[in-house]
Design goal:
With about 240 residues, the chain is an alpha/beta fold. The protein is built from 10 helices and 12 strands. It has helices at about 30-40, 50-55, 60-70, 85-95, 110-120, 145-155, 180, 200-210, 220-225, 230-239, and strands spanning about 1-10, 15-20, 20-30, 45-50, 75-80, 100, 125-130, 135, 140-145, 160-165, 190-195, 215-220. It has an 8-stranded parallel barrel, surrounded by 6 helices.
């Protein structure tokens, strides 16, 4: 199980939101490249980068992503505002490991075409969840689609990479919902990542003990708020 640190980008800065609400943005750094370098030095093998500017239709941070790829030399997965085949292909051509789809993953025709264009292994589906149902449009619109039904459906397309985010927990440092995460154990052939609510090393110990089937845990605010270091988290999951 990997620990993947998150870098959320807004107007060229590293920020964190609470429950995905733009008006809660807290700036942690004006130099994302330095954050990426520090995380790599602490042991990060992969960065989870979300372009919030693109997600909220407020420009994009492509220049920051390019700089991280060229200067830090680390694998990255990128999400936020990927709504066209052209943009997804551009990111892959830049050197992005995988592109992350949220709302557009519900567009079946788009998803099928993207799989053909870049391959299903380069696509990660972000399931943003509230009360077990999928939430879309930057977490602003709730659907009646069960996350478990949705994962089952997209797995039939050969998609293997899934992020499960509890949006009520995300950015709150309030702990994790282990009971719902345990329900994901039935998906045997998927690489499942979780995010949202991780606040302390004890949360990671519970994850390691009770949901060890996970491929990775994405951690953001807890690191930025110095609840624990990335190095401590990596060591805990390795030992």
């Amino acid at each position: 199980m990997m620990i993947i640190p998150a870098i959320d980008l807004l107007d060229g800065k590293v920020v964190r939101l609470t429950q995905g609400k733009l008006n809660t943005a807290k700036i942690y750094s004006h130099t994302p490249i330095d954050v990426a370098k520090n995380l790599k030095e602490e042991g990060a093998e992969l960065l989870h980068i979300i372009d919030l500017s693109a997600a909220f239709d407020k420009g994009d941070n492509i220049f920051v992503i390019e700089e991280i790829l060229s200067k830090v030399k680390i694998k990255i997965q990128v999400g936020g505002g990927i709504r066209t085949i052209k943009k997804a292909k551009k990111l892959i051509k830049m050197g992005v490991e995988r592109v992350i789809l949220g709302t557009k993953s519900l567009d079946e025709a788009f998803l099928d075409k993207l799989c053909k264009e870049i391959g299903s292994q380069r696509i990660m589906i972000s399931t943003d969840v509230k009360n077990e149902n999928i939430v879309i449009k930057g977490w602003r619109k709730e659907t009646k689609l069960s996350v478990f039904d949705f994962i089952k459906k997209i797995s039939k397309k050969g998609l293997k990479w899934i992020i499960y985010t509890d949006i009520l927990k995300d950015g709150t440092l309030s702990g994790i919902d282990l009971e719902n995460i345990k329900k994901l154990s039935g998906f045997k052939n998927l690489n499942i990542l979780i995010s949202g609510g991780i606040s302390c090393l004890e949360d990671l110990m519970k994850i390691k003990a009770e949901v060890s089937f996970l491929w990775a845990v994405i951690v953001g605010k807890a690191i930025y708020e110095n609840r624990f270091s990335l190095k401590e988290a990596i060591n805990l999951l390795k030992n």
